[in-house]
Amino acid sequence: MLRHATGALRRVAARRQASTLILADHDGANMTPSTLAALTAASKLNETSAVLVAGAPSTVAEQAAKAQGVEAVFHVDAPPSAKGIASFVEKGGYSHVFAPVSNNTKDFVPRIAAALGVSPVTDICEVLNEDTFVRPFYAGNALATVKTTQSVTVATVRATAFEKVSEEGGAAGVEAASIDAAVAPELPEKISESSGDSERPDLTAARVVVSGGRGMGSGENFAMLEQLADKLGGAVGASRAAVDAGMVPNELQVGQTGKVVAPELYIAVGISGAIQHLSGMKDSKTIVAINKDAEAPIFQVADYGLVADLFEAVPELDAKL
Fold this sequence. Notes:
It is found in: Mitochondrion matrix. It is built from 9 helices and 16 strands.
């Protein structure tokens, strides 16, 4: 049931200290798993958080209401303006605004911060206290501790750095929020949208990722990785070198300029291990590397390494499964 948000805003305003609003990320039909990780980050500050679901149907808001650690869900159908969200934050008296890192949030979170007159803290991977955070830099090879003294902390959360809260078990109410809608030129125009027909899990949500690099030689050779990934119930990824060579589409790229993943198992095949690629997968729970070059940097982060010709090793591994 949808109710007007005014009453809830008053209640939240009364708890001004360390009250957090999560900006839910979604694809228009479902809330992304990364939002669950943002809730975990927020839990380091307070037990429960409010969630704003904007520009999505009420079914997405209902998904958010079921997640653990959610005390209230605010919903608005139309994509809101940055100033509208900033006003909502101020009226609600929130001390923190968190959003998971995504293409969507990279676009609108800085504008929300600007409307609030603050600087955003981006890509946080650890919450030390209510005003101190850790974020990676230098392609993830160094960590910076950032302390903010701003009235409102606006931050994006690196989802792979936090465990996800359960998407079930919560029982928050969903309330209709009144927020000014975005208008041109703030609202981007969607020219086209396409998605693959693969039945494999999404690359950023998969428990197993099998990635190929320049050593694969051609796009046709990625078929052996696809077969291996299918047997393991995983997704297929690639290094930038493989993408730039035209072997696979950009949507499979893992790394600093691609997608950041942290699966239970990451298998790197024919990937040398450039710093930009490592920044996108080094948080994986278990890393297996297959490369014929024993000096390849990938072996420095691998839990298990196999120095071998991938065209012999991968078919043999596949046959054993």
